[in-house]
Known about the structure:
Blueprint: H1 4-32, H2 37-57, H3 66-84, H4 86-91, H5 97-108, H6 124-152, H7 173-200, H8 205-216, H9 234-247, H10 251-258, H11 264-267, H12 269-292, H13 300-311, H14 326-338, H15 351-369, E1 378-379, E2 382-383, H16 386-411, H17 417-428, H18 449-463, H19 467-470
Antiparallel strand pairs: 1-2
Transmembrane segments: 7-32, 38-57, 69-90, 135-160, 181-201, 235-253, 274-295, 326-349, 388-409, 453-478
Keywords: Cell inner membrane, Cell membrane, Ion transport, Membrane, Metal-binding, Potassium, Potassium transport, Transmembrane, Transmembrane helix, Transport
Subcellular location: Cell inner membrane
Amino acid sequence: MIHYRSIFHVLSALLLFMIVVLIIPLLISFNFAEPDEIAFLQTMGVLLIVALPLFLLTRGEVTLDIKDGFLIVTLGWTLYALFGALPFYFSGFIPSYTDAFFETMSGFTTTGASILTDIEALPEGLLFWRSLTHWLGGMGIILLSLAILPLLGIGGMQLFKAEVPGPTPDRLTPRIKHTAELLWVVYVAISVIEAVALKLAGMNWFDAWCHTFGTMATGGFSTKNASVGAFNSGLIDYIIIVFMIIAGTNFSLHYRAFKGKFFSYFKDPETLTFMAIILAATVFIAIDILSILGYEQFSFRHVLFQVVSIITTTGYGTSDYEQWPILSKVVLIILMYFGGCAGSTGGGMKIIRSIILFKFAINQVKQLLHPNAVFVVRVGKRSVPQEIVTNIAGFTLLYILLSIIGVLFMSGLGLNWETCIGSVAATINNIGPGFGSVGPTENYAHLPLIGKWFLSFLMLAGRLEIYTVLVLFVPIFWKR
């Protein structure tokens, strides 16, 4: 049974919370005496008119179950994009609502794909709001991946039911509250550390906070047209590399580290695999660039930065990887689909799923040699139930199928294949910059309107682990 009153109450509360959050960019606009302050006030007025009556009319005990969880997660992200686009639209800096929605959906899903041709032309208030959408989306993603999806049984995420201590009743509300309190403290603390580090490295406070928001959420929105490369600082690059890796790692491990259990990182198979992939990809691409383009075109720092940026699905750039050899670009596409660790703010399919599928495939080969033997998939010391393996296999098939459909859809709009593959891979994996005409030095402004709406859907579906969105289109979901 779907509890509509409770759902509307939670959604209206989320919209009222957006009003509070909008005060921050509004104050920045006032401080710089910018013209976009009126746009923020108009947006807050619209939110108040829509959300407050709904919140008051739906008061009472909030009761939520699994179906309600699916609806709140999908509708919550969609409503935030719909209303969060209004400051851009009302200000006139993004005159098309489709473009404003695309930019904001990209922000809240921590994708980082942009339609802006001149980012630096935006006032500071809008630039800050643009980056803040990342950070808010990242907070939601941590909660989603470590509290909600495990209880909903999405794509093998049940493995993380016990990662964070706390009550685990059938109802969602108590666990969500408990998990949020633990993980958001960690999220905020790490964010403050990064902002201070970037300030000490030479950024001003405004740029430091905006790039912290983009890093911790693995989003990638920058205040500069040339992204992080605009600062031309090795120290800034390495600081962001470190924090991209932190953001791409399971936040329950950060929670344990804050409690003194630092060696949890070295005992976690997913984290070790994540680091091994980063090392292997960096070495491979470095050799490929050196052998084909020569030493003059090589920079280890830029290679490491782009590898970490892509696998964590952050999307920041310090160099134009479109100029790299074709084999290096293929490796980057593979890294896009690997993504970060489960329980992180990273997108993609997640490392843990790749580990389980690989071990399952090895077991199938062993089964051919020993038909009567029983082989169990293990991750570390933990046995993975067959139900979860099947769930992950289904998720992976659906993920790849949706990617193929996406490429075919975009090709029907008259785009070349490199742009089709690049745009779909970059949006469904929540990376941002892709290949072709949506590469690291380009943007999504030239795409047809229907293409922008479709890619916005892919951002949402990829961010919410596919099933969370697609289950709403199954008729049985709406039956009692």
